[in-house]
Design a protein that fits this description.
about 220 residues, 8-stranded mixed sheet, single chain, alpha+beta, Peroxisomal Thiolase, Chain A, domain 1
Amino acid sequence: MNASILACGIVDEVGIAGTRGVTATWQDLEMQVPGTGKTMKVLFDKADPTFRRIDMLARSLVLACEAADLEALLTPAQRQEASICVESDLGALATDLNFASSLNDECVHAGIFPYSLTSTSLGEVALRYKLRGPTISMSVRDGDAGESLREALRMLNCGDCSHVVTGVVDTLREPAVGRPAIMRAIVAVLSADDPGSGLGTLSWPERSATNIDPFLQFAAMCR
């Protein structure tokens, strides 16, 4: 199974980059990863009044999609059939810890509770870019990295959708419950294989016994 890679975007502890041509570090932006309520306006000259309220997972995903220029990349008709398939090892752990901590405060952070589901973060992407195809949030374990890529190729091959926004997202600002701090969201926009277009071809990613990160090729395309 193959698919064309149309665009990529990345948000990590260094900054934001994508095939849209944007490259910025958090140090230059004078912002903490993954940005503030002003990040969308500063980087993309785009008003997004709800961006400040979403959690780190959703914020990272939205910024990565914007760095891939998702809105301009797909036509309105294509977005009606475009799907989302994103994997995560940590899931919404950062939000869960934040909410649990707020239980000791005078005011519980009820606004972040919906983000205890990783599917809510994917919903934020779908709403912003009007993606109307199936939305799949995948939980992976060590050794299963790349399962979202395999599922995305299955969806394209079966005709479930015309395009897929696929990738990985894990956010944890500080080490917790035995897990190291990590901050990354990497997305790629895939379409049915067309050798004459795109940035290259994604082939069926095999599970690696050497723990090679299958998303490194997308990260390299961004910077």
